[in-house]
Amino acid sequence: MKAGSNLQELEQMVRGELEIKNDFNCDSRDLAFRIKPVGEAEFFKPVIELDGTDYETSELMNNQIANKLNVPKKYFDRMVTEAPELCEQNVNHWLQEDPKRYMVRTLGNKARAFLSDRYEVIDNWDVLKAIMPALRPYKEKDDLEFEESHITDTNLYLRFTIPSLEKDIAVHTNEGDGKKVGDIIHFGLQVKNSEVGLGSVEVAPFIKRLVCLNGMVATDYGQNKKHLGRSQWDGIDRSILRQETIKQGNKAWIMTVQDSVDGMFNGPIFEEISNTFVEAQTGTKMDVPRRSIEKLTKDFDFSESESDSILEHLLGSGDKTKFGLANAVTRTATDVENVDRSMKMESQGWQIMNMKFDQWYNYATA
Q1: Distance of alpha carbon 79 from the chain centroid
Q2: CB atoms within 10 A of CB 364
Q3: Could you give the CA distance from residue 319 to residue 113 in angstroms, rounded to a whole number?
Q4: What is the pLDDT of residue 235?
Q5: How far, CA to CA in Å, does 14 sit from each of 2, 4, 263?
Q6: Which of 83, 219, 338, 356 has the most CB atoms at less than 10 Å from its CB?
Q7: Between the CA of residue 162 and those of 86, 91, 141, 201, what are the distances in Å?
Q8: 105 bridge partner residues
Q9: Cα 20 to Cα 94: distance, rounded to the nearest angstrom
Q10: pLDDT confidence bin for 187, thresholds 50/70/90
Q11: CA 5/CA 183 separation, integer angstroms
Q12: Rounded distance, CA 219 to CA 19, Å?
């Protein structure tokens, strides 16, 4: 996975984006979609005209436009490259003939999201302002370790651990499986947010295994806040939405973050997750790991290269338990270049670790 940013760099990036981002409340009839040629080559890029300004649309926004206008994405992409005028006609026809209200999110000269007018803005800056005060008591006790942060085109990720929340999860057997005293996990949290409509704001437990530095995210223990509220259209003319208007809807969520963090660190969650790690090291083992991973690859949508890597790491560890497979997945995640994909695989590692008996048995005996 690509190297992340330190906390200061992250804050500078998020603060810098505040100066160049805008949100527009739009009637679709006030939008114009065009395909512009780029240079002398036969290459085209979609743009959307808004208030007399052209904004280059992101690939995600093109997906969202096609989805909301019920234009098949493969057909949309083909029109862009092979019949740009037809693409313009199709998109503009439905923008005009089927008028709806949308929020268009821009960053500099790029249009990055095409969303419902009920989309509730909770931006990365809002998330930082909510989470950092919640973590201050741990920082003051010198019990807060910054792990990593990333900003991708679609998501923010921020991770911390609490060094005092650690546990030795080693299970000792007589089978020489390599588990030793000192298999320590640290407990912490991951904060995730998407400003472009690809997910909720999420604060979830993050578990770091020190022996290999693999990480897992227990999303089922997390707190989520969907970017969904009342229509932003009421009483607002077609214009840039004022930040004061946007922020009214997320104040309630911000007030719950402190309680969520306190409950995560001071309640039974760490003990429950630790027990899951221990229990995953016992029980049914995989009969034929290759077949188990073939089934896992299909169900979890791993690529061929990811599947091969999971098998390699599993066989290298010699651990055919649920614990071994989960860690093979998270170990593979560290080698994946794409940050969003790597983070997803770490969440999938936890899903495997937390499988119920019947579900795991199906994989173990595949």
Answers
A1: 30
A2: 23
A3: 44
A4: 37
A5: 19, 14, 27
A6: 219
A7: 56, 50, 10, 21
A8: 23, 113
A9: 29
A10: very high
A11: 28
A12: 32
Which tens digit of pLDDT belongs to each residue from 125-145? 988 988 888 899 999 999 999
Q: Which residues fall within 8 angstroms of residue 12, CB to CB, at 6 or more apart? A: none
Distances (CA, A) of 33 to 52, 62, 92, 360: 12, 11, 6, 49
186 membership: H or E segment, kind and range = strand 184-193
* Nearest alpha carbon to residue 113 among 59, 192, 164: 59
Residues of the chain with pLDDT > 70, as a percent, come to 87
| pLDDT tens digits for range 207-260 | 999 888 889 999 888 887 776 655 544 433 334 444 444 455 556 666 677 777
Token pair listed for 345:
């695989």
Q: What is the pLDDT of residue 40?
A: 63
CA atoms within 13 A on the CB side of 318: 5
Distance CA 197, CA 120 (A): 10
- ∠ Cα 272 205 301 (to 5°): 100
Which are the contacts of 189, defined by CB distance < 8 A and separation ≥ 6?
A: 159, 160, 203, 204, 205, 206, 261, 264, 265
